[in-house]
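Sequence, please.
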């Protein structure tokens, strides 16, 4: 029948039909592509400024968490001219960082972090150099006992020094910020340089205090603005302070590295730096090697910067929660009395201390010290939950929205160790406990940090009770964080009162 009809239609008309049909098909195909390339939703941006007036730069993570309630788990905000995709909620963050680890696993190198690292080291590097430095660092630190018995002994030794230091204060109120950072830094120093410093050593104090200041300054509003408009740099006080910190930091670490170089014996490597230098010597002839002085310096700087403030801040939050909730502190101490008694606590004890373990996990959850992880970028064009995200787009995995996810936690905004306990009081792991992030860029020092926090916290609670200073009630202790690149407790005096 159709053949019969076509026999009577002139050839020119059939050609028109073909052209029209092909055009319609092409139109539908492109429409489909546009639909597939749908950008995530988000607040309408202003030209040049983007959504700067719709977010609170002083508490960006909270502000983005609020926006996620309106726009959903994948949304787009414009920081100045730059598009940023925000991932919110446990399911979405996990789906991106773990299930699509390669697509979401590159690091965003913002102008300030480019100034710091020039894309060397681990934290703010990508590609083959990052891969090699991350692999080498993980395996070398493991060889030196990271997360194993050898580092346990080193941490225990450091706990004794810290307890001695707290004892000197005889229960008077003090800001524990510096002392705890020195102790944590010494554990890293043992691994990196094979030595510990006295807490009064000006070099240790300079390195730690400078790092703390740097981490605070990098999270300030003026540096967020610098990242959008880098030409503003020389006019910004915080940027100038950061550049100065960076230069003096490099000089100090280069001095320590030079001493190790002068006394290097490749047959008996004492520490991470020795292993790196030996590797560098062995690969001398190879032009393409990643084992050069810049990678050594920036990797060491990265580990101190990423490892000291984060761990020390977490321990400080744990102690503040104990002072704020004395009935919980008493339960931890009772459990320690029953299981450990007066001997030195060790990692093996952890499995017999479910309540204490739950308190540590709950402190980390509520403290939420790295609220936006460290920004990622997409390594290729990707379609995610139906939205198109272009290669190279900045992605913020909003850890605040994971650690406070209402569909995962029974009471997300209150301190509640039961989040990590079953009905019989046994410790339970929770998938949405993600303070170290997840996937390809997951924290490299997680096992060391977990050991540090457990041993320092339990050793301190065996010897001391933490209380507010006289005249201040528990209710008056302030849990509002100081916002920098990490969230840390307000500097407020706590008393470390000796237990009998
Ligand atoms: C409580 C302590 C710590 C917390 C909460 C923490 C948290 C984090 C987070 C959230 C990230 C970003 C992950 C991402 O981009 O998705 C990270 C990365 C990193 N952390 Fe930690 N961290 C801690 C301790 C440490 C320690 C002790 C070290 C060093 C020994 C360390 C070394 C690093 C490094 C090198 C990276 C960058 C990894 C990469 O880009 O490949 N961290 N950490």
């Amino acid at each position: 029948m159709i053949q019969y009809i076509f026999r009577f239609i002139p050839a020119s008309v059939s050609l028109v039909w073909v052209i029209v049909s092909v055009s319609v098909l092409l139109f539908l195909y492109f429409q489909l592509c546009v639909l597939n390339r749908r950008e995530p939703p988000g607040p309408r941006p202003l030209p040049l400024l983007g959504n700067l007036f719709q977010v609170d730069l002083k508490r960006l993570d909270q502000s983005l968490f609020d926006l996620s309630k309106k726009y959903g788990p994948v949304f787009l905000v414009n920081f100045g001219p730059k598009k940023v995709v925000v991932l919110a909620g446990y399911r979405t963050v996990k789906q991106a960082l773990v299930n699509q680890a390669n697509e979401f696993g590159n690091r965003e190198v913002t102008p300030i972090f480019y100034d710091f690292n020039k894309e060397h080291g681990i934290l703010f590097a990508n590609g083959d150099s990052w891969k090699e430095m991350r692999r080498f660092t993980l395996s070398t630190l493991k060889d030196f006992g990271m997360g194993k018995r050898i580092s346990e002994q080193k941490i225990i030794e450091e706990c004794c020094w810290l307890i001695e230091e707290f004892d000197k204060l005889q229960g008077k109120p003090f800001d524990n910020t510096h002392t705890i950072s020195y102790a944590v830094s010494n554990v890293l120093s043992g691994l990196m340089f094979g030595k510990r410093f006295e807490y009064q050593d000006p070099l240790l104090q300079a390195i730690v205090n400078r790092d703390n200041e740097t981490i605070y300054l990098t999270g300030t509003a003026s540096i967020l603005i610098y990242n959008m408009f880098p030409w503003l740099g020389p006019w910004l006080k915080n940027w100038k302070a950061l550049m100065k910190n960076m230069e003096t930091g490099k000089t100090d670490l280069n001095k320590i590295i030079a001493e190790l170089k002068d006394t290097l014996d490749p047959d008996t490597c004492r520490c991470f730096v020795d292993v790196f230098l030996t590797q560098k010597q062995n690969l001398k002839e190879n032009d393409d090697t990643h084992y050069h002085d810049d990678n050594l310096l920036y990797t060491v700087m990265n580990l101190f910067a990423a490892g000291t403030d984060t761990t020390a801040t977490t321990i400080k939050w744990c102690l503040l929660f104990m002072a704020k909730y004395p009935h919980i502190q008493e339960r931890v101490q009772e459990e320690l009395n029953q299981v450990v008694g007066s001997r030195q606590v060790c990692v093996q004890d952890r499995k017999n201390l479910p309540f204490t373990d739950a308190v540590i996990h709950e402190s980390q959850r509520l403290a939420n010290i790295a609220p936006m992880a460290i920004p990622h970028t997409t390594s290729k064009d990707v379609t995610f939950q139906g939205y198109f995200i272009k290669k190279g787009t900045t992605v913020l995995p909003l850890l605040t929205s994971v650690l406070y996810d209402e569909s995962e936690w029974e009471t997300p905004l209150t301190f509640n160790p039961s989040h990590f306990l079953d009905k019989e009081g046994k410790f339970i792991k929770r998938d949405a406990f993600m303070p170290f992030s997840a996937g390809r860029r997951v924290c490299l020092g997680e096992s060391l940090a977990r050991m540090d926090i457990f041993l320092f916290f339990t050793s301190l609670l065996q010897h001391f009770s933490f209380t507010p200073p006289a005249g201040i009630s528990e209710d008056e202790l302030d849990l509002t964080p100081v916002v920098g690149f990490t969230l840390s407790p307000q500097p407020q005096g706590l008393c470390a009162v000796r237990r009998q």
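The longest strand covers residues 74-79.
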